[in-house]
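Note to self: the last two entries modelled the partners one at a time, which told us nothing about the interface. This time every component goes in together.
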Amino acid sequence: MRRIVVVLGLVLAPSVAQAYPQFQLSTGATRCNACHYAPAGGGLLNGFGRGEVGDTISMWGGDGALLHGLVKPPDWLAAGAEIRLAGAVNDNDAAAGTEVAAFPMQMDLLVRFQVGAFSLYANGGIRGLGREAEPHGADDTTNPEQTASSRFISREHYLMWRPQPQGWYARAGRFFAPYGLRLVEHPTYVRRWLNFDTLQETYNLSGGFVSDEWELHLTAFTPDFFREAPGPDGSGGAVYYERRLGKTATVGAQARVIVGDVDVRGGGGLVGKLYLPGPHLQLQAQLDVVYQSFDDFDGRTQLVGYLGGTWFAAKGLMATLFLERFDEDLSLGQTARSAVGAELQWFPYAHFEVSLWGRIAMIGTGTDDGPLSEMVLLQLHYFL
Amino acid sequence: MLRTALLAAVLATAGCTAETDDRPLNFSYIHAAILVPNCATAGCHSSLTRTAGIDMEDIATARMAVTAGAIEPLLKGIYQAGGSYFPRMPPDQPLPDADIDLIVAWYNLSLTDPGVP
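The predicted structure of the combined assembly is written out below.
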């Protein structure tokens, strides 16, 4: 059982703080950076975002400011912390049976300094429970990844120039290139299979324009060159454009090229969001097609899709149903994954969240059905 | 019933696909197309983490891991050692049977020809 607990903890180990794209339209905000310092959302909340946490997001209100408003940092400083504890149940048709785990998922500190139009942002935390990086052999004592300091990692750190929240900006550093829906759950197919999984942030030179009507983000990226962090095995560029259709709908398009040592991946897709005020329902979808060419072999075309609907049942309570699809190779049967899932998120009081996420995936969809893979994940989330 | 419902839900995205796997029986392809995206994740067998000392991101160590044996039982979740079963690999998203079959076919080939590319 101990082995099972550790393995599941490894698979689901910590995720970086992300935005909740369900709030983009449903709260009346059309821009992600209305609530976040980052131009495309995610990470540390700004003053307006912290205010919304208490006023709009949480069931019983509260003060979303740093330390619940006990201290007020100077204007040039913003800070926070993220803590997530998780419990998971996983069943994937293995003889070992159902796996059960409980583990710390995320423990990060976040800080941002601002001087005029320039800001420096960084987060850092512990890589998570049970990430036993074992040496390759007895002689492997010099590998820097095996040192104790490798347990601490900064997923995001960047320098940004942005005179105003709306308008042009530029930033350089480590973060995810703005692309697609940018869902919070990293196992989601559009993150897992498009290189936006845990610790896959790249080093980037990025810039763009953000306004109430539209936003554009251009990014040139290369893999983490300080560590052997996983991620796109190659450098490239990405572009994401989003257009708001009034205050209740958006459409977006994205494209990306990754040039690796043995392959080149090029692709793109579409994103859409629609908020229906009557039933308090927000629909979100993303569909991407990727062509991967290999130096020595025939290429393949992949498809990744997400379709979800979030119902805001009450203040502080939202329920999401979603469908996912990943076709590893569109030309070959029985290699696709199809999934249906649900998530219930409860924000009882400012700074607190309880999330219950579950997914049933059919592996190898085709004429000869593959195994089912079922996972349920409970998260307790607190941010400072 | 559940499988039927899932199938119905994804029919819209299901295309006409070949049922015969003509992908190359070559480890360089298997590594780039299957092992790296599925196994070399941050929490598992990436070079950064190397769970259980296994690095699937590096092609040489990945080849050693696959040829160490028991690859098929591990991928199908039926590998047993020390009186207990190992989790199916990868635990979060098991490989489709077609991918397992390709890896096992290459492994069987390597038993008779250890130098097979």
